[in-house]
Amino acid sequence: MKQLKITNRRPKIVVIGGGTGLPVILRSLKEKDADVTAVVTVADDGGSSGALRKSFNAVPPGDLRNVLTALSDIPELQKQIFQYRFKKDDSTLSGHTIGNLIISATADMEGNIYRAIQLLATMMHVKGHVYPAAEEPLVLHAKYMDGTTESGESHIPKKGKMIDYVTVTCTDENKTVKAGRKVKSSIMDADMVVLGPGSLFTSILPNLMIPEIGEALLKTEAKVVYISNIMTQLGETENVNDADHIKVLHKHLGQKFIDIALTNIGQVPEFYIENEQNEEYLLQVEHDFKGLQEEVPLIISDDFLQLTSKGVYHNGEKVAEEIFKTAFNSQRKIKEYFKNA
User: Fold this and answer.
1) Which residues form a coiled coil (predicted)?
2) Tens of pLDDT along 194-224?
3) Which of 4, 34, 287, 293 has the most neighbouring CB atoms within 10 Å?
4) Residue-range domain boundaries for the chain
5) Considering the entire predicted model, what is its pTM?
């Protein structure tokens, strides 16, 4: 059982993940009176990030770029420049973003991705903390239900098979996988740790499979929240409901560790699914309330949908409000407990 701890400060909220869902939540949490830390996956090997990872033998910058932008207080025009992606007809820089190039160049200049991100965070007036989950690129490995295996974050979903388990290694297999600086201590000192939203096997679990991070999640006194995905994902979570997502996470760490499930019960209109531009996303994740009750002590369910011209996302403001309210109420109960003891 997690022990109560007394505190007299802003709640510390650590968000772990990657992909497009993480920045949505971080942008809204930034506006709350909370001490926000983002721990960002470093297993991406596709697109611009993958190309730069290969060229520099360095941590892929894409997810870190999006998180820095989400937490930054620089003017919108500067963010747009940082996020600008070169057109496909540019033979040299095709597909690369300016931000990816800047992060890679800064890491090369500083000799370390951690120092590079801290420098850029200062330059970009980041409100919060951004830490890479590891300080060198990781290789994601998957074992499928049929016993076969595949390696590489961008290759794993393309097999079209149900994934049983994932692990990570360093690109140099003689090295031990280690968490990045301040990652473990941030989790241990947090009031709340948030997982997701993001691809279950390729954005969230790569972080948890770093031994120090997995161990910290099992030992921390912080409440651990899982934000369930809205849509199933091709090659990862076909026919997987919200309770199944949590069962997978518990299976990977060998015990139940998630305290709160935040799940969407709003209905995605059929025409949004039919017109979804991202072919990875298939159908809406089904809600299994009974299954969730068997996995977690607390369920927060609501219509968390944000329908945009680009697709279906979480309503960052509503999700952040629930996260902050839960963290704040936990702190208040802790203070009242010690006051009345």
Assistant:
1) none
2) 998 999 999 999 999 999 999 999 999 999 9
3) 34
4) 38-132, 182-341
5) 0.90
